[in-house]
Design goal:
The chain is mainly α and about 160 residues long. It is about 55% helix and about 0% strand. It has six helices and two strands. The protein has helices spanning about 5-15, 20-25, 45-60, 65-75, 80-115, 125-130, and strands at about 35, 40. Strands 1-2 form a two-stranded antiparallel sheet. A hairpin with a 5-residue loop joins strand 1 and strand 2. Helix 1 packs across helix 3. The longest helix is centred in the middle third of the chain and has 35 residues, at about 80-115. The chain is elongated, with a radius of gyration of 24 Å. Residues about 145-160 have low confidence and may be disordered.
Length: about 160
């Protein structure tokens, strides 16, 4: 048996940060680590393989819940592959919908940018479009494309007079 790894070693071996390892433990993607008498976490090679699996799944955009299902299927050697394929296909369908929505947003923004002169005049079709509730952007973002963190608000610029 190989010797246990501390969290830093497990992070380095798996490519997952120590902070995310603790998070994955907290949400149940990784079993709670064994502890030394002094309370330090200890990880096994199996834990590292699980963390690598999670990292790869996250890189493909799977959600925590989807990863939980994938981990369960990965650990079940009797699973039918159709269950794995079905989960992956559902995720692929979500990505396709998100991609179509992003392309519509891109087209709308390209049109608005094209219509704006971008000069010293205050008239701006981009601002006008955003401000008019009846003539706003043709695309309404869904949960798939809404930012998960509120963007920082721009500071108002002072107007120079004179």
């Amino acid at each position: 048996m190989t010797r246990p790894l501390n969290i830093g070693q497990a992070a380095q071996a798996s490519g997952v940060s120590a902070k995310m390892i603790r998070h994955y433990e907290g949400v149940g993607l990784l079993p709670e680590a064994a502890r030394t008498e002094s309370g330090y976490r200890q990880y096994t090679e199996r834990d590292v393989r699980t963390l690598q699996f999670v990292r790869h799944a996250r890189a493909l955009g799977f959600s925590i819940d989807e990863i939980r299902d994938l981990l369960s299927l990965w650990q079940d050697r009797q699973r039918p592959s159709r269950l794995v394929r079905s989960l992956a296909q559902a995720h692929l369908d979500q990505i396709g919908a998100k991609l179509r929505e992003l392309q519509a947003i891109q087209a709308t923004l390209q049109h608005l940018v094209h219509c704006c002169h971008g000069d010293d005049r205050p008239e701006c079709p981009i601002i006008d479009s955003l401000a008019d509730p009846h003539d706003g952007p043709a695309v309404t973002p869904t949960a798939a494309t809404r930012p998960t963190v509120a963007p920082a608000r721009a500071r108002p610029r002072s107007r120079r007079t004179g």
